[in-house]
Amino acid sequence: MLNIVIFGAPGSGKGTQSELIIKEYGLDHISTGDVLRAEMKNETELGKIAKDYIEKGQLVPDDLIVNMLAKVLDSKANSKGVIFDGFPRTIPQAKALKAMLNERGTDVSVMLNLQVDEDELVKRLLERGKVSGRSDDNLETIKSRLEVYHKQTAPLADYYVGEGKHVAIQGMGTIEEIFGRIKKAIDAVNK
Ligand code: AP5
Ligand code: MG
């Protein structure tokens, strides 16, 4: 299986590039943010809990996310591979992912770390906020999402360096230029 972790700050292009990767490689996509937003829309128990965290720009607790992910992963049992978007975001989540994949006889193939300047992240998210309807695309929540990213999530890059899976991707430029860099990184592990 070709299992890709797409990683980066809020607004770095994880969702945008995931769509292109899916088309090119025929993978399944799991975005924990999208799953949580669907739970919120359906007003499930998980959705109600998640809402408070998401609107403050904070992370939803690891145990809730890991349980949720295990269920989604089971629904993709016959997949050629999965692109994990917005997960893992903490070391416990990364360890849980490794354990879940190992149990299924597979592992993370590569972690793509999108590098985007802070000014550009804020610009992209404010622009998207005009049309997205996302309750976290406002300046105050964007600031806390970026802070949480730097404190809690960015350190995860070192975990994947240790696993020998980390590839930094220059995430500035046009969507096509960035996708070209991503393809090179995927093709290097998908021989
Ligand atoms: P999540 O939904 O994952 O949001 P995020 O990480 O903040 O990232 P975004 O989805 O905002 O950005 P993106 O990197 O996908 O960029 P996109 O392609 O859209 O998580 C939301 C919340 O859910 C979290 O804050 C947390 O509360 C909770 N959560 C989720 N997962 C969790 C987990 N594992 N553990 C705990 N809590 C969790 O691009 C952004 C914009 O830029 C778009 O408008 C796009 O069109 C534009 N754009 C993209 N590329 C370019 C480019 N090259 N040039 C110009 N514009 C571009
Ligand atoms: Mg996204």
How would you portray this structure in words?
It is built from 9 helices and 5 strands; from the N terminus they run βαβαααβαβαααβα. By secondary structure, it is α/β, with parallel strands linked by helices. The chain has one domain: P-loop containing nucleotide triphosphate hydrolases (Rossmann fold). A 5-stranded parallel sheet has the order 2-3-1-4-5, sandwiched between helices. The relative contact order is 0.20.
In DSSP terms, counting alpha (H) and pi (I) runs of 4 or more, how many helices? 9
Give the ligands present: BIS(adenosine)-5'-pentaphosphate, magnesium ion
Q: Name the helix and strand elements from N-terminus to C-terminus, one letter apiece.
A: EHEHHHEHEHHHEH
CATH architectural designation = 3-Layer(aba) Sandwich
